[in-house]
């Protein structure tokens, strides 16, 4: 009586390898398509801070597009379709942000893809503290901007007087003001006042709507167009707040 064997024949082994590599190719193509869409067209953003409250809350989910501001690729940043406008909500890379090495970026993207955006080695190492941040565009190149009682006032290059950020913006929004400790000096960071500064020809001033819990241009200064990563288009979660952020 022949002895039963669990060993595969050579033909079965070849067929198993063929199926394995076929599935691997499909997975790779899906991953590349996902990265292409996320890097150029649309990206899902999970908010992890209260810096944009009351407009955007922690754990909200946003859909953003890198295409409008010019997506960053391994060949460099592509031309932008539009310039950042007053009131825009954007993903910003702060001036001190360091781009990860190519291999680290690819590994991070692959693990985020395989875990449905639940795990990011770069974020686990503290890279989330280096951005990107969600900010609102307050002032444009050539503007003069100052702040009183946590409200920014802007004098455009075409105007001879200051207007509030709300009067100049095409977007309606509100801000959150902190309760400062007794004796908090106006010279301290995140106070309610800021001396006027004049923006250069490629400088934008951005800030969070939560004026007491936002790392923004008040701390690290104006930024250029190259630091704009994506423009927020809509909030898709929680569903009861679905729509423009």
Structure, described:
This protein is an alpha+beta fold and 245 residues long. The chain has helices at residues 10-41, 102-114, 121-124, 165-168, 217-220, and strands at 43-46, 61-65, 72-73, 76-77, 89-92, 133-139, 144-148, 151-155, 163-164, 194-198, 205-207, 228-237. The strands form three sheets. A six-stranded antiparallel β-sheet has the order 1-2-12-5-6-11. Strand 8 (151-155) and strand 9 (163-164) form a beta hairpin.
Write the layout of secondary structure elements.
Elements: H1 10-41, E1 43-46, E2 61-65, E3 72-73, E4 76-77, E5 89-92, H2 102-114, H3 121-124, E6 133-139, E7 144-148, E8 151-155, E9 163-164, H4 165-168, E10 194-198, E11 205-207, H5 217-220, E12 228-237
Antiparallel strand pairs: 1-2, 2-12, 3-4, 5-6, 5-12, 6-11, 7-8, 7-10, 8-9
Helix and strand succession?
Answer: HEEEEEHHEEEEHEEHE
Query: Biggest β-sheet: count, sense, barrel?
Result: 6 strands, antiparallel
Beta strand % = 15-25%
Q: What is the total domain count?
A: 2
* Number of helical regions: 5
Rg, Cα atoms, Å = 24 Å
CATH top level assignment of the largest domain:
Mainly Beta
Arithmetic mean of pLDDT: 85
CATH architecture call of the largest domain: Ribbon
Structural class: alpha+beta
Order of strands side by side in the largest beta sheet? 1-2-12-5-6-11
Shape: elongated
Number of strands: 12
- Tell me the name of the CATH homologous superfamily of the largest domain: Umud Fragment, subunit A
N→C terminal distance = 74 Å
């Amino acid at each position: 009586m022949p002895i039963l064997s669990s060993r595969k024949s050579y033909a079965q082994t070849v067929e198993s390898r063929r199926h394995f590599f076929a599935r691997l190719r499909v997975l790779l193509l899906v991953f590349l398509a996902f990265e292409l869409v996320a890097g150029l067209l649309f990206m899902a953003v999970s908010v992890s801070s209260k810096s944009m409250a009351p407009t955007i809350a922690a754990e909200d989910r946003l859909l953003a597009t890198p295409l409008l501001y010019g997506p960053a690729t391994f060949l460099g940043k592509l031309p932008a379709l539009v310039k950042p406008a007053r009131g825009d909500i954007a993903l910003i890379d702060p001036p001190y942000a360091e781009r990860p090495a190519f291999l680290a970026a690819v590994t991070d993207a692959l693990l985020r893809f395989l875990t449905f955006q639940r795990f990011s080695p770069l974020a686990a190492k503290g890279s989330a503290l280096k951005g990107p941040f969600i900010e609102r565009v307050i002032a444009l190149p050539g503007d003069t901007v100052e702040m009183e009682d946590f409200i920014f006032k802007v004098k455009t290059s075409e105007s001879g007087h200051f207007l509030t950020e709300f009067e100049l913006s095409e977007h309606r929004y509100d801000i959150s003001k902190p309760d400062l400790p007794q004796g908090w000096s106006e010279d301290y960071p995140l106070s309610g006042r800021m001396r006027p500064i004049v923006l250069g020809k490629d400088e934008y001033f951005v800030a969070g709507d939560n004026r007491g819990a936002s790392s923004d241009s008040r701390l690290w200064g104006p930024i250029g167009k190259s630091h704009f990563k994506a423009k927020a288009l809509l909030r898709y979660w929680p569903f009861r707040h679905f729509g423009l952020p």
